[in-house]
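step=predict obj=TPR repeat-containing protein n=941
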Amino acid sequence: MKPGAVCRLVGLFMGLLSQLGMAQSSYVWQGNQLKTRADSLYVAGNKPLAEQHYRQLVRYYEQHQDAARTAKALTDLAVLQLAKREYPYGIRLLRRSLARLAGPASPDSTRFRAYSYLGLFFKRMGRFDSCQIYYDRATELLDHTHTRQNSGTLISYYTNQGVWEIDRGDYRQAELFLQKAHALLAAEPGFNRRIIDQNRAFVYLQTGRYAQALASFDEALRTATSADYLVIANKALCLLKLNRLSEARATMQQSMTAYRAVCAHTKGYTDSYFLAIHYRDLGAYYHKKRLFTTAIRQFRQSLAVADPTNRAGRSEAWRFMGQTLQEQGKVDQAVNCFQQAIHWAHPSFRNPDPYTNPAKTQTWLARELFRALTAKAGALAQLGLLRADHRALDASFDTYLRAIDLAEQMRRSYQTDWGRLFFTETAFDTYLKALEVTQQLYRQTGQPRYREALFTIAEQSRAATLTSLVREAGLKLRTLPTQERTAERALLDQLSGLQSSLGYETDSLKRRQTEQLLNETELAHSRLLTRFEHDYPAYYQLKYAPTAVSTATVQRWLPDTNTLLLSYTLLSNQLLMQAIDKGRVSIHTVPVDGRFFALVRQFRGALGTSPGGRQYAGHKAAMALYTYLIAPLRDELRGKQRLLILRDGVLNLLPFEVLAPKTGTYLLQTHTISYGYSAHWLLLMANHHPTTTDRLAMAPFNEPVGEAGTYRAATLAVLPHSGSEVAGVRGDVLLGAAATRTAFLENYASKRLIHLATHAITDDREPLRSRVAFFPDQPAHLLSTEAIYNLNLQQTSLVVLSACETGAGKLQQGEGVLSLARAFNYAGARAVLTTLWNAHDEASAFLLTRFQQHLDKGAATDEALWQAKLDFLKSDLAPRYDHPYFWANFVLIGPAEVIETPPRRWLWGLLGTLGVGGLGWGVRQYHTRNRTRSRSAMGIG
């Protein structure tokens, strides 16, 4: 072919390519124009016309066989169906979208958006199993792909995840998701932030932070384009919770006015969800006004308008109506209402007989089912007591057991500690009422199953969050690969550092940035825990397996016949005491009233207040409390020297060692005493076996700190005896300027025993603000409770906290005292030697020096503490410090054990020297013998 012809062909080909590119560019440009127009109409509120444009966009991209853009347009069209409540149609559109994304090169961003909205659509339809599947797929895409997601899509995803967690009752997890969504708003200024503000307000409402809730509802209304009747309705509910009834009623009317305005503007508009909660809240208002007939009428109206898919709303309305009937004295009718509430919360359970319960309590509406079961159990108990009806009492017992089983599953499903703690506190009353019904049945029948249930329920009611978290830590070691545990450890270390830095950061901008990073890290940790459940079936199965501890298990665990476990549980008007030894289980109850609690306060005040030269004035209260707490158990105590005590409520603040059968005596003189959060927790910790023998002791304030900067914490006084206190610890001993927070964090993880002779700063109202002080070489010299929670103390048998009030803190129902000591136990320490009130420097030094000496002689930890206290009472210090204030504050929490003593450093040095010398002598002898043998062979004499 001639060169000219070739050039003409090339030119023609390039022209065709150019035209094709222009056509492609024109087609994309036209599609973008259609998309922009549709989006503008949607934002302007003209949703019908916007929908027409989105349909046109779908057809346009289908004509051009552009699968990716068709999928995106189908997703946009599906989102419009949310407002119209056309959920099945929206699901079909999203599935069509996913079908277009079947190719390997399809964009993950569109798939992520489709999965997210499929989860939301299924949730709105009440199909929670499908909802969870698609939310999980969206989360997996987010975690495992590097595709950049649109900010608006991420905001919607995190908001919807937050709402999902609200429905589950994990309010801390919900708050984390909503905070993440809020942080992304800066990248999407046009996003409707009202939805986020409203849901954050709802979290505050459900967790009792009513002032924050009202402020957030008002903020949501300020950012709304028009009066939002749902936000106003939720604000009314908040006012109702605060018993501001007239304001609540006026706000309800305001929400109905706003709703009717929307109906007038949009032909055929109705919102059954709003109407259901409006009439429900009206019923609650009239209930509070004690206008019961009117209240019931409103609840029935709520049921009449509620959509059948709104199972949670229907369950709640039936429960509210039952509570109103119960208050009217119509208990039979109330029980039937509660049975209806159970049915709506558990779709597969349809038996109308109130004496029956679901065989299994697994449901996506667990929170509503728990409330309905608890309400029915209470009503059946009322029937049983009113009519002396054993059948009703037994049905109440069975219903409480179902509720408690469900509560255990719910608690374990929450991935944040805060969420578990909050749930434990809110569910605590159910356990107490269950114990009272069980005690009544045991008193009437004497049947062993009720006696066993008393122990099991009491166990489940105490330290449930701490126990479950310790148990799960052990499960991870057994079921997760090393790299997964390492990944979690890295996140926990990061959380610990961020939480500590918040304690001293004063720059407002840096503080906000740290808080945001902290929230993101906590969210990453909770998502990692969720993935563990999905990816490792063995971990999931063991995590949710029944874990009730039996009395027989405890009896097998007790070390000998001289040991007695005592469990105390405070009920509404009686004290339940359970005693377990190797051979028997016994139960006692003692009536308690205001006088008992006054005695506890009086006794605690006499013990914990510095005497300042005054004589001990607590003998009378000690003897009175002895008659309540110890005297009923004198038969069980006979021949028992070691006591393991499980305390409850205000009893957590008492050292039982000081209880006295008569003036001038103490229980300490006849018994070794240690404490536990629960028997289950003691068993878990006893099965934890550290492999190291190393020890660490620190005394940051053994000498004056001096002047070295503005953050040298002049208020932290010198503790002159703390140096001698730790000097006898066989291990690494860090004094003064060497005892820094950094040194602790670098050395603690491999230590069997950790001894901190220092200052502590406790906060009873905000326990997470409590801190342990180290040498003030930097602003961050305090170790916070939150940071301690995330330490790794799996190798630690004992932490000695020789500081003020490390065992004191906020008393939380169902969990005990939220103290610094508990934080160390939470981090994995088997046992903690802690203080219930201020630690006196000289007395503490004597006690803990003797404690270490007895420990090194082979005494178990509880016996070593017992001997140290007896030594103190016989010492030269006793006349000067003749008051339990100086010695009774130290208590041991955790299983007793003999802690192996490491060899002394000088002995290792001597052995090393002898070893090296011996090795050198052996080498010389070897060569000498070899030379001799060689010379003989050569004939040299």
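step=describe
Confidence is low (pLDDT under 50) at residues 707-714, 906-914, 923-941.
step=end
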